[in-house]
Design brief:
Elements (H helix, E strand, L loop, with lengths): L14 H12 L8 E6 L5 E7 L6 E5 L9 H12 L3 E6 L20 H13 L5 E6 L1 H13 L7 E5 L5 H7 L6 H21 L15 H12 L5 H8 L12 E6 L20 E6 L8 E4 L2 E4 H18 L1
Parallel strand pairs: 3-4, 3-5, 5-6, 6-7, 7-8
Antiparallel strand pairs: 1-2, 2-4, 9-10
Length: 323
């Protein structure tokens, strides 16, 4: 466990962009076999859950990032680590993700916490005596932290970890429209527009989003699609209501927040100080790591440091509960 104390980025992956791109696009990870379950929701829609069940051990609920799914490297990596330690996991496949259109007009977004709440309660009902934890990264980190703040001391979990979280969504949209980070913005826009076109072919929107192919920035996409589709006036209203930062003081379960100061998706000036979070929140700001990267080791022995750090924190919290 000595390698968990501090993160040292791989010498052959210097800088935030190498860390970010290699971790998400190049790293080869074989995911353990999971079982997909379709569950009906409170509003007539549905969600797909992907379960990894090893026995009666603790369960980690996984909340993925923007346009993520079971093929995302971050998801496959945490599933592999969960299997390695003999625990259980479940991925929430957000509405309209994974190439599957949902039934309703609305989709998922960075502030949508009702679906997470539904899955937490469902899991708790099915496994009442099993410790339950949640891990969310990127957009999923924002959803998780907002939910924790909303629930306060009524969150029925033992602990949580959020990684590479955009605490202020407006700031993150701005950061992705600068310099090299525009490459990431272009990638996300391509995915978002593709899934939106698929959805709108089945369920035409009640508003006119215009020509999706002309959208150049994430803020413009959120103005023209995300906001009207989910009941917000515009992108600014969506960002203001959905950013997790104002909810951090209300968190009442042990929570670890890990962000990198060189994250190309985020502006570090938006990272909360210890005074801006509850005493239950542990802040771990690392100098390097990129966005959801944190790749350590050498070319012959590479590993995702973050996956071990997450499970190490969860194990620590379970040990504290026993004592």
């Amino acid at each position: 466990m000595r390698r968990l104390k501090t993160f040292r980025p791989s010498f052959w992956l210097p800088g935030p962009h190498f860390q970010t791109i290699w971790a998400s696009m190049i790293r080869k990870i074989k995911s353990p076999k999971t079982n997909k379950e379709k569950i009906e929701l409170y509003d007539g829609d549905f969600l797909n859950l992907l379960w990894l069940i090893n026995g009666n051990g603790p369960i980690i609920i996984i909340v993925h990032g923007l346009e993520g799914d079971e093929s995302s490297n971050n998801v496959k990596a945490i599933f592999s680590t969960i299997k390695e330690i003999g625990w259980n996991g479940v991925l929430i496949l957000n509405r309209n993700c994974g190439g599957i259109s949902n039934r309703l007009q609305r989709t998922y977004h960075a502030g949508e916490t009702r679906d997470l709440d539904f899955v937490v309660n469902l899991t708790k009902k099915r496994f009442p005596k099993v410790p339950l934890m949640i891990y969310g990264y990127s957009l999923g980190g924002n959803i998780l932290l907002k939910w924790l703040g909303e629930k306060g001391d009524k969150a029925p979990i033992t602990s949580a970890v959020a990684v590479s979280t955009p605490f202020d969504l407006a700031s993150s949209a701005n950061a992705l429209n600068k310099g090299f980070s525009k490459i990431y913005q272009k990638h996300f826009l391509k995915l978002l527009c593709k899934s939106t076109k698929r959805k709108f072919m089945k369920i035409p929107p009640s508003f006119n989003p215009g020509n999706l192919d002309n959208i150049k920035t994430l803020r413009e996409f959120d103005n023209r699609v995300t906001a009207p589709l989910n009941g917000f006036y515009n992108a600014n209203h969506y960002y203001s209501d959905s950013s997790c930062k104002k909810f951090l003081k209300e968190i009442r379960v042990p929570t670890l927040i890990i962000n990198s100061l060189d994250d190309p998706f985020l502006e570090k000036k938006t990272f909360p100080s210890q005074k801006e979070v509850s005493e239950m929140v542990e802040l771990e700001y690392l100098k390097k790591g990129g966005h959801a990267g944190f790749i350590a080791g050498n070319p012959w022995n590479i590993f995702g440091w973050i996956d071990y750090r997450i499970t190490f924190f969860f194990k620590e919290q379970l040990m504290k509960m026993k004592h």
